[in-house]
């Protein structure tokens, strides 16, 4: 054990011994005085003298310093002259009165109280207050405006008939009818007509055009194609490839046509065709063309004839006649339809 600690240890033991020795001596002194005072009172009572008051107090004050055994002092109080923390730790004043009881009164000397170091704990996080969310308002989607699709024509062959020339048995006519079932008008309608033998082999091809220059949506137009150097028994079938342009895609030309004409009368005889045409438009027209289509009783095509009106210029509201000799028919058709158009020079 180091000398400082051995010195402190011995000093503590000696202090404790002296403290208890003093306490014992004081208790013995108080006891002896109490017995002596009692004997004096007895003697006084026997002698008839009763004192008015007897005030016997015995007190002793002792200041003791106690250091717990085993506590190591950091400084030598004797050598430094400064009381260490262990010596300042506890100081008591004992007061002994007539009752013989000892009361421990804390002195004014400060007592060192160890400071508690706060334990680091988890700091409660502030409660998050949910922010009010804005009510989702459904944004009305813009109404889709349907873009109108461009009008498109749809031109197809709806019927056709083979006829043989009465002048040359090696000339065959294919007469037919086109219908525009689309939503737009069609122009520049061309047809590639192919004759196919019974084995499915194409033996002849020719071109034809719709006789009306404009086939309106929902309207129809006749056409006529001619094959030469073949006979009807060589043809097993006829195929058509129709080509056309929408009217919106056709550029303007110097010469345009007018359709505001009507055939007011028509006569189809075995040997001639005659009738009258009227201009229903607002401007004069030239080169008036009349197309006459004949059908039998069940609606099958039997003939198509094209005739020029007998006038060079037809003013608005006026009429003109037309006439043509016929050589290809044995009998006239049962039903007749007539169309007319003319050209306008601008």
Verbal overview:
The protein has 346 residues and is an alpha+beta fold. It folds into three domains: 3-45 and 58-106, no CATH class; 149-251, Sandwich (Immunoglobulin-like), CATH 2.60.40.10; 253-346, Immunoglobulin-like (Sandwich), CATH 2.60.40. It is built from three helices and 18 strands. Strands 11, 14, 15, 16 and 18 form a five-stranded antiparallel β-sheet that branches. Strands 6, 7, 8 and 10 form a four-stranded antiparallel β-sheet that branches. A three-stranded antiparallel β-sheet has the order 1-2-3, covered by helices on one side. A hairpin with a 3-residue loop joins strand 12 and strand 13 (272-279). The longest helix is centred in the first third of the chain and has 45 residues, at 3-47. The protein is rod-shaped, with a radius of gyration of 72 Å. Residues 44-113 have low confidence and may be disordered.
Q: How do the strands and helices of this protein lay out in sequence?
A:
Elements: H1 3-47, E1 61-65, H2 77-80, H3 85-88, E2 91-96, E3 102-106, E4 155-164, E5 171-180, E6 186-196, E7 202-209, E8 214-215, E9 220-228, E10 237-246, E11 255-258, E12 261-268, E13 272-279, E14 285-295, E15 301-308, E16 313-314, E17 319-325, E18 335-345
Antiparallel strand pairs: 1-2, 2-3, 4-5, 5-9, 6-7, 6-8, 6-10, 11-18, 12-13, 13-17, 14-15, 14-16, 14-18
């Amino acid at each position: 054990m180091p000398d400082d600690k051995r010195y402190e240890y011995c000093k503590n033991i000696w202090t404790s011994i002296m403290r208890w020795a003093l306490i014992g001596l004081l208790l013995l002194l108080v006891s002896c005085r109490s017995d002596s005072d009692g004997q004096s009172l007895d003697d006084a009572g026997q002698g008839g003298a009763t004192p008015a008051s007897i005030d016997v107090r015995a007190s002793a004050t002792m200041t003791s310093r106690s250091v717990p055994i085993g506590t190591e002092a950091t400084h030598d109080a004797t050598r430094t002259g400064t009381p260490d923390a262990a010596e300042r730790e506890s100081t008591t004043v004992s007061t002994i009165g007539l009752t013989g009881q000892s009361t421990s009164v804390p002195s004014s000397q400060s007592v060192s109280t160890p400071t508690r170091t706060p334990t680091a704990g988890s700091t409660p996080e502030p409660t998050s207050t949910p922010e009010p969310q804005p009510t989702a308002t459904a944004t009305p989607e813009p109404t889709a405006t349907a873009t109108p699709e461009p009008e498109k024509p749809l031109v197809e062959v709806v019927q056709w008939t083979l006829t043989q020339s009465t002048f040359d048995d090696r000339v065959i006519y294919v007469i037919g009818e086109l219908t525009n079932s689309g939503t737009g008008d069609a122009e520049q309608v061309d047809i590639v007509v192919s004759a196919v033998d019974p084995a499915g082999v194409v033996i002849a091809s020719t071109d034809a055009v719709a006789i009306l220059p404009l086939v309106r949506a929902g309207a129809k137009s006749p056409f006529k194609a001619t094959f030469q150097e073949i006979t009807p028994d060589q043809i097993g079938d006829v195929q058509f490839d129709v080509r056309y342009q929408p009217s919106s895609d056709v550029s303007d030309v110097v010469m345009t046509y007018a359709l505001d004409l009507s055939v007011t009368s028509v006569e189809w005889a075995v040997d001639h065709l005659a009738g009258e045409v009227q201009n229903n438009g607002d401007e004069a027209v030239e080169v008036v063309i009349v197309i006459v289509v004949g059908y039998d009783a069940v609606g099958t095509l039997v003939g198509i004839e094209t005739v020029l009106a007998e006038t060079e210029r037809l003013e608005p509201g006026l009429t003109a006649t037309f006439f043509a000799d016929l050589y290809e028919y044995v009998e006239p058709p049962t039903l007749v339809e007539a169309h007319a158009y003319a050209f306008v020079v601008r």
